[in-house]
């Protein structure tokens, strides 16, 4: 076994023991011997991410994909670090590369959708989320974000449809019922909105947003209907 492999194996053992900073030293030793070792760069980036050292993680992931341009996992983790750093335009490119290298990397496409969403590119976000749902219907959080994106586009009928579908899979989601209520209200259906807010509060009695909306709508209904 070569010295690089010895350092890599030691790093893996230290990671299993939760000794992250000691593992960093071993990966750095491996890179001193083999600076182009993409796996070591990616592994080092993953540790930095766990330590919330985002700039350092980004640097290591970039080194990993520089030395191995076909490293889908490194592009994905680069995208995550960039996303957490608020660099959405850059995270878009990283997630695109991950999905291009591995078309079955659906979680990368999901994060691509989130990046588009926070850039305000809502139609592209919806497209990404729907592609994920076509291949991985169990990733129901993607449907939740489709609903959120439609709501931002003022497409309340579509938003209601998506939240109804989401709640079939996650019936105990107070956030799902809160958003369903908001969109029913925005499309003018006060009774359905009240029902959704009530259900949200049943699930989560501390849901102040739903309580406030419910109080307002019940007052409106008492006064005007």
From TrEMBL:
<feature type="repeat" description="TPR">
    <location>
        <begin position="140"/>
        <end position="173"/>
    </location>
</feature>
<keyword id="KW-0677">Repeat</keyword>
<dbReference type="InterPro" id="IPR019734">
    <property type="entry name" value="TPR_rpt"/>
</dbReference>
<feature type="repeat" description="TPR">
    <location>
        <begin position="38"/>
        <end position="71"/>
    </location>
</feature>
<keyword id="KW-0802">TPR repeat</keyword>
<dbReference type="Pfam" id="PF00515">
    <property type="entry name" value="TPR_1"/>
</dbReference>
<dbReference type="InterPro" id="IPR011990">
    <property type="entry name" value="TPR-like_helical_dom_sf"/>
</dbReference>
<feature type="repeat" description="TPR">
    <location>
        <begin position="106"/>
        <end position="139"/>
    </location>
</feature>
<dbReference type="Pfam" id="PF13174">
    <property type="entry name" value="TPR_6"/>
</dbReference>
<feature type="repeat" description="TPR">
    <location>
        <begin position="72"/>
        <end position="105"/>
    </location>
</feature>
<feature type="repeat" description="TPR">
    <location>
        <begin position="4"/>
        <end position="37"/>
    </location>
</feature>
<protein>
    <submittedName>
        <fullName>Uncharacterized protein</fullName>
    </submittedName>
</protein>
<dbReference type="InterPro" id="IPR051685">
    <property type="entry name" value="Ycf3/AcsC/BcsC/TPR_MFPF"/>
</dbReference>
<feature type="repeat" description="TPR">
    <location>
        <begin position="174"/>
        <end position="207"/>
    </location>
</feature>
<dbReference type="Pfam" id="PF13414">
    <property type="entry name" value="TPR_11"/>
</dbReference>
């Amino acid at each position: 076994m070569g010295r690089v492999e010895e350092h890599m194996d030691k790093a893996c053992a230290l990671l299993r023991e939760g000794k992250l900073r000691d593992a960093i030293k071993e990966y750095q030793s491996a890179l001193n011997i083999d600076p182009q070792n993409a796996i070591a760069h990616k592994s080092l980036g993953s540790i930095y991410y766990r330590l919330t050292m985002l700039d350092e993680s980004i640097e290591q992931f970039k080194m990993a994909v520089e030395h191995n341009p076909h490293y889908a996992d490194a592009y994905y983790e680069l995208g995550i670090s960039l996303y957490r750093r608020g660099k959405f335009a850059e995270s878009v490119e990283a997630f695109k590369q991950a999905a291009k290298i591995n078309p079955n990397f659906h979680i990368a496409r999901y994060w691509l959708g989130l990046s588009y969403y926070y850039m305000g590119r809502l139609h592209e976000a919806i497209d990404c989320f729907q592609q994920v749902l076509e291949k991985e219907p169990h990733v129901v959080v993607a449907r939740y974000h489709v609903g959120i994106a439609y709501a931002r586009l003022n497409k309340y009928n579509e938003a209601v449809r998506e939240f109804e579908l989401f709640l079939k899979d996650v019936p105990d989601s107070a956030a799902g019922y809160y958003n369903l209520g908001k969109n029913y209200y925005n499309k003018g259906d006060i009774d359905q909105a009240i029902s959704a807010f009530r259900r949200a509060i049943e699930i989560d009695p501390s849901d102040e947003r739903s309580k406030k909306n419910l109080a307002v709508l019940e007052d409106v209904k008492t006064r005007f209907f």
